[in-house]
Amino acid sequence: MPKIDPKEKRLVAVVSLAIGIFMVAIALLSTFVFNIKNLPLEWDQFITLGMIVAIFPTAVVEYLDLRWERGIDKNIPRLLREIAESGKTGLTLIRAIEVSAERDYGPLTPELRHLVSQISWGVSLDEALRSFAKRARTKLAQRSADLIAEVSRSGGDTQEIMEQVNKHIGELQSMDRERYAQMRPYAVVVYIAFGVFLFTDIMLIRSFFTQIVDLQAKVLQTQGVTGGGGAASIFGGASAMDIALLKKVLFHATLVQAGIGGLVAGKMSEAKLGAGLKHVVLLLIISFVAFFIFVWGA
After folding, report:
1. Domain range enclosing 153
2. Nearest 5°: CA angle at 37, between 32 and 42?
3. Is the pLDDT of residue 166 over 70?
4. Considering the entire predicted model, what is its pTM?
């Protein structure tokens, strides 16, 4: 899994956002300024596609970066355990780290070898560990680096202390896994709530509002009314219901539900707001496809 630099993440976000804004601007200008008719999609449908284009690359980058961070955290306990085992053979802490850098720890390996290279260039262990924690960018890596640095400064029985550090880091990871396991089902609740909301919107449009409009049309035809503006209707003189406007309102409400629900799902299940972008993209696509098939294409 590749490491994605924060600058690269910002670049992807800016470029994708610019493309999305360009699509939205084209849709709005074509509809409300140039009054272009017979467009393949309505302006709000173009805006939805622009939102998907703007969010999708950033969501992919956030997903890959999150996988990389998980790979870092997953291999830290193994690294600490093997450093402690190397200490049992009489190796110093720095030498134990150098020996461990020759093994494979997934995405942690390049950062560990960079740390060893810095030490070989004459950088102090404390400074090399701070640089390592900055590159790794995870809370667990920061804590581990701080604890190893403290072990180096305190001296004493390094092997026993490293075993305690490994135990402490393992307990922290267990707590994180337990928290995520408890919170992850809430993401399913968000999807269920969104599905109910979307289903209700579609059923209201197809089974309720459409029948009311048809009934109004029949009543107006029976009364001999040709215009819908101030004509009498079954609602005591109100004008005929605008089914197209209702479709737009419910579609926009669905988009809002998709955006907020996706971010909430990411925050609750993975404790990161950026992790919700993939849920936002998926819910937006579901909204667009569902309305395209069951509402606009019906």
Report:
1. 72-176
2. 70
3. yes
4. 0.85
